Amino acid sequence: MNDGVRQQAVQWLMQVRDQPEDVGVQQAFDLWLAADDRHRLGYLDALIAFNAAADAHAPMHAPMRPGVARRHRLWLGAAFGVLLAVVGLYGPRWFEQVRADETSAPGVARELVLADGSQLRLAPDSAIAIDFSASERDIELLRGAVTIDVAADSRPLILRHHQTTVRDIGTRFAVQAAPDVLRVGVVSGVVEVTRADRAAVRIPAGAQIEWHGAAVEQRPWQEHRDVADMLLLDHAPAALALAQWAAFEGSRVQWIGAPPSDISLDAALPMRSAEERHAALATLAREFGLDVLLDGAGLVVLRAAR
Amino acid sequence: MSAWTAVFAAHATELRAVLARVLGDVSLAEDCVQDTVMRLLDADFSSVRDPKAFLFQVGYNLARDALRRRHVRGSVVDDADAAIDAVVSNDAGPEVHLLVREQLAIVSRALAQLPDQRRRVLWLVRVEGLSLKETAATLGITAKTVENHMTQALRQLTELMTLTESGGIAPRTRRAQARDIQ
């Protein structure tokens, strides 16, 4: 590795980390990486050194006696591991619950009328935060899926989910979210969807757009009313199907590796009892080619079978 | 169920995104993440101080090996010795977590040798997560000085690890070793 590349890699590491919002810096960095594999190697060397510094900082503090230090490390390591697991697995859901103004229970859809007269239908195990002001009606979809009949009002209605904004233009529309999947269907009127820094997309009545990782798929919109105790899948990729399944249980689905994206499933699976829900999970795992690594304590850990 | 499962669950997505960007290849990044998971599932968890840092360290090392192999395969190899060198002497192999432990130990020792101010800068930036400007304000120095400290510190650590991984042995000797293996 030549010294020039090593120096550049370290400087890029600092810049990219320090200026995440600077599109120019980020693009220039990507171009530098793409110019030569030696740049990529140099950058990985810099990352390895930078990352190692986080773990190896203990000597900066006053050293403890070796026996005490070892016992402390064991206990602290165990406590940290437990804390990390709890926060990592349940933290996001707890955070959603705290922020939510309206939620629906696992397995139960819920209909409500907002202050402006808009009618809103929350799919099972969904959560939203509502913020109506004098200039706009803002709804954030924190989890799950929602269908909105927007009441006429001078203020625009804006639905947000992560970095996506759905802006209605007099309409009835539905938004369904799962990790790495977002589906927006329009029943009447038009909505405009903006994702992160990409150009806005207009979706007309009768159409549906699904963002799945980097892929975008447009299909005709077909509205499905939830049927009690039945999991209805409409051309659902694995991430969305398992999110819908989990909404019946109130479970959290955790993927190890990326969910498979090459299969979509149409299905109606009964979910009337624990046995049927378990059988539905087994069916989904089989159809999508998944290994179920854990199913218990409100958590399902999945991995695409090799 | 491995104690690592919760760590994978919390951080695999971020690791995949970082590797995809650095490698410029989503599938290769995915392979590296899967490889990281498989290799760590049975690794000793109790002695790891920072599981996330450890996970990323293994991932970065595997990505570097994958990139070296791709680089060698994709290039016109004029020097067969150089190709052997690139693949054989640097491949982390199945015991990548041992290599990572060694790297962490090296950095731990190296940090103790850094000048106090440089060590403080590295701590604030890496561990406290401060920006260069915030670090400068905290220490009452300029952002440029902070950047210089970081650049020097990381260069030292990078060179030290590279030297240690190569065993401080001259390239000619390593090529001879590679031939012996064959």
Can you describe this structure?
- The complex is a heterodimer of chains A (306) and B (182).
- The longest helix of chain A has 34 residues.
- Chain A has 306 residues and is of the alpha+beta class.
- In chain A, helix 1 crosses helix 3 and helix 5 runs antiparallel to helix 6.
- Chain A is built from 6 helices and 17 strands.
- Chain A is globular.
- In chain A, strand 4 and strand 5 form a beta hairpin.
- In chain A, the strands form 3 sheets. In chain A, strands 1, 2, 3, 4, 5, 6, 7, 8, 9, 10, 11 and 12 form a 12-stranded mixed sheet that branches. A 3-stranded mixed sheet of chain A has the order 14-17-16. A two-stranded antiparallel sheet of chain A has the order 13-15.
- Chain B is mostly helical and 182 residues long.
- Chain B folds into 2 domains: 78 residues, Rna Polymerase Sigma Factor, Chain: A, CATH 1.10.1740; 69 residues, Arc Repressor Mutant, subunit A, CATH 1.10.10.
- Helix content of chain B is 77%, strand content 0%.
- The radius of gyration of chain B is 18 Å and the shape is globular.
- The C terminus of chain B is likely disordered.
- Classes of the chains: A alpha+beta (306), B mainly alpha (182).
Produce a short descriptive summary.
Chain A is α+β, with helices and mostly antiparallel strands and 306 residues long. In chain A, 36% of the residues lie in helices and 37% in strands.
